[in-house]
Amino acid sequence: MRLGAFFLTLAALAASKLAAQGRQPLPWEGLQPLDWQAAPGVAAAIPYEARPSSGPVEARLTVDGTLSIRDARGIIRLQTGLPGRPLKAWRDGGLPLPAPTGTWSFPTDSPLSQGLSGLLWGAADFRPFLRGLLWVLEDGEAVLSVVHPATARAIHLPLPPGRDLHLTFLSDRLEVGAGEVDKGAPRRWSIPWMGLLPRLADLGPQPGPARTGSALAPFPKD
Fold first, then answer.
1. Which domain of life does this protein belong to (predicted)?
2. Which one of 68, 111, 146, 150 counts the least CB within 10 Å of its CB?
């Protein structure tokens, strides 16, 4: 069972509604669907055992969903709001945080700091290549916010339907389980990490604006 076509229709309807209201969509509105697939049974999850990453970058998340990122010099590089109040949070490749709010340290040299070229796509366990990320599930449980403090960027991943959601970070995929679903709906969904790479790419470094030339230097050097 696939949700792609269903979510694509909903996204188009949401975009039309926002256009009719004459306002720009928020970052988590009108998202393109992910190819979530119903996962039969319960996977035997091998716990991810790793030391939390650390470094000079600071991520702070408050109870109202305000996120701020400070670099090593204490300069705020990102300050934004999440879709709702944080409910659960994980870091790196799926290490659960004891509380969804607080202040945490992150490195500046995580794999995604190099873009997709820093990832070993064929790795048997992809979770080590998610080092340096912050994952936040908000109380509306409609999207999963993923933050990359090293680049001060955040994305939002649309989640499958259900309530009381919980995430399982497996070696080859991300699974979402629901404690409560509509009658007949699946309780577990999954998507391989490879299926998330196009979205994770937006967490990597972004190219700056092209430098313009002048009469004296028509072809400026970097």
1. Bacteria
2. 68
With bands split at pLDDT 50, 70 and 90, how would you rate the model's confidence at 217? low
Total count of domains within the chain: 1
Strand pairing class (188-192; 37-38): antiparallel
Give CA–CA dist 30/94, Å, rounded. 26
Q: List, for residues 74-85, the tens digit of each pLDDT value.
A: 999 999 999 999
Q: CA nearest 146: which of 108, 174, 178?
A: 174
- Looking at the DSSP bridge assignments, the partners of residue 158 are 143
Burial of 38 (0-12, 13-18, 19+ CB in 10 A): middle
Question: Is the residue at 209 inside a domain?
Answer: no
Q: What domain range includes position 197?
A: 4-37+48-203
pTM: 0.82
Neighbours of 183 (CB within 10 A): 4
Spatial distance between the Cα atoms of 107 and 185, rounded to a whole number of angstroms: 40
